[in-house]
Write a structure and sequence with these properties.
It is a single chain. This protein is of the alpha+beta class. It has a single domain, classed as HIT-like (HIT family, subunit A), CATH 3.30.428.10. The chain has 2 helices and 5 strands; from the N terminus they run αβββαββ. The protein has a 5-stranded antiparallel beta sheet, with helices on one face. Strand 1 and strand 2 form a beta hairpin. The mean pLDDT is 97. Bound molecules: 2'-deoxyguanosine-5'-monophosphate (DGP). The site of 2'-deoxyguanosine-5'-monophosphate (DGP) has 14 residues, from strand 2.
Length: 112
């Protein structure tokens, strides 16, 4: 998508600290980290958010979560939080599906 920041990161047009990439998924460090480890995991396919995903994206959604587990394992991270904000009212500011992988501090539950 032309004006999507994350599509530009995926294509390399905008530089970011990429920590993982495969045929379907890219993961890079969040510009504004909320935890000592804060990585964004995004599908290469532009999908606005989870609500916009369809049945044909089922495998891709699984691949994102498996990528999160691999990134954590490869970084010796045992405990982490994986969050996807869906919609502006839930805090989604970039309209390209992404999961936040956060670790390295205590997380409260229920989340605020
Ligand atoms: P959300 O609020 O759930 O849509 O999260 C969007 C995240 O994206 C937010 O934590 C900051 C991050 N972000 C926004 N622009 C950029 C960017 O250009 N580069 C990187 N690395 N992260 C970005």
């Amino acid at each position: 998508m032309n004006d999507c920041i994350f599509c530009k990161i995926i294509s390399g047009e905008i530089k970011s600290q990429i920590v993982y990439e495969d045929d379907f998924v890219v993961a890079f460090k969040d510009l504004n980290p909320q935890a000592p480890t804060h990585i964004l995991i995004v599908p290469k396919k532009h999908i606005e958010n989870i609500a916009a995903a369809s049945e044909e994206d089922a495998l891709l959604l699984g691949k994102i979560q498996l990528a999160a587990a691999k990134i954590a394992k490869d970084s010796n991270i045992k405990d982490f939080r994986l969050v996807a904000n869906n919609g502006k009212g839930a805090g989604q500011s970039v309209m390209h599906l992404h999961y936040h992988l956060m670790a390295g501090r205590r997380f409260l539950w229920p989340a605020g």
